[in-house]
Amino acid sequence: MARRALLRTAVSAATLLLPLPLVPVAAAAAAAAPDPDPSARRLADQAKKNLLATESVHLKLTDRGADTKTSKTQPTSMDLTLDRDGNCTGSMRMGSGGGSVAIIKRGDEVWMKPDTAFWKAQVPGGQGAAVAELFKNRYIHGSTNDAMLRGMADTCDLTSFQKDITADSSDEGRLTKGKETRVDGTDVIPLKGTSEGNHVVLYVTSDSPHRLVRATQKGAGTDTTLSLSDYGEPVPSKTPSAGDSVDVGKLQDELQGV
After folding, report:
1. What SS3 state is found at 129?
2. What is the pLDDT of residues 33-83, one digit of tens each?
3. Is the omega angle on the peptide bond into residue 124 within 30 degrees of 0, that is, cis?
4. How far is residue 67 CA from its own chain's centroid?
5. What angle do CA 187, 188, 194 make, to 5 degrees?
């Protein structure tokens, strides 16, 4: 049913927004000795290498694009901690008053807790309010085998995110180094360039290991910021209790009648 597809899309759409234009890793191996004044290319290569190597990371995405802000099924912001084993915890907020949804995934188990605005946006005909009241303050719980929750598997999988970065070969124009500045209390060097006509800035830590902590992309209809932190830190393992959860089958039964 179309309503179920919308629900899955709302959960999985963030995967389309994650791959910002990072430059490819250089073919030549990095020198063993630290470089006191690395080039823009060297910084970008090392930042990408460290992002591809990490076992876990905390991502925060903000999309201020006009199309996203007017869509109730596309996230305007996302906050996720995820790892290579497919575990994650966080939330997404949709555009145009489409509400928000909390997300937890541990192994093959998935929990999602939409707010009232989300239910109203996703379930038409005035039934969203009734569904929201029925599942109020509770998580919908199921597994990645369930079609309604399957999109969570890719959204929460750092390996998929890293594969998207590897597949991205954007490299239009030359990267240039800006003056050292600070992002969230960390000393960084901005690397400026273009990708598909958009202005891109990669903020890479000044000290080794050089890591990407923020990437921005601006252009016609595009205004996206991706922040990264907590490289290698474990994903919180706490999951909702049975009393705070409702089996996804009950939601499916309710949607059948809508």
Report:
1. helix
2. 566 678 888 898 899 899 989 999 999 988 887 777 677 667 788 899 999
3. no
4. 18
5. 165
pLDDT for 87-116, tens place per residue? 999 998 888 888 899 999 999 999 999 999
One-letter amino acid of 112: M
Please return the burial class of 165, using the count of CB atoms within 10 Å of its CB with bins 0-12, 13-18 and 19+.
middle
The alpha carbon of 156 is separated from its chain's Cα centroid by a whole number of angstroms, namely: 8
* Rg from Cα positions in the chain: 20
- pLDDT (tens digit per residue) in 214-232: 988 888 888 888 899 999 9
What are the helix (H) ranges across 79-237? 116-122, 128-134, 151-155, 158-167
Dihedral sign from CA coordinates of 73, 76, 79, 83: positive
8 A C-beta contact, residue 204 and residue 22? no
Amino acid symbol at 194: T
Work out the burial of residue 80: count CB atoms within 10 Å of its CB; fewer than 13 is exposed, 13-18 middle, 19 or more buried. Answer: buried
> pTM here?
0.80
Quick one: which H or E segment has residue 34?
Answer: none
Token couple for 241: 């209790």
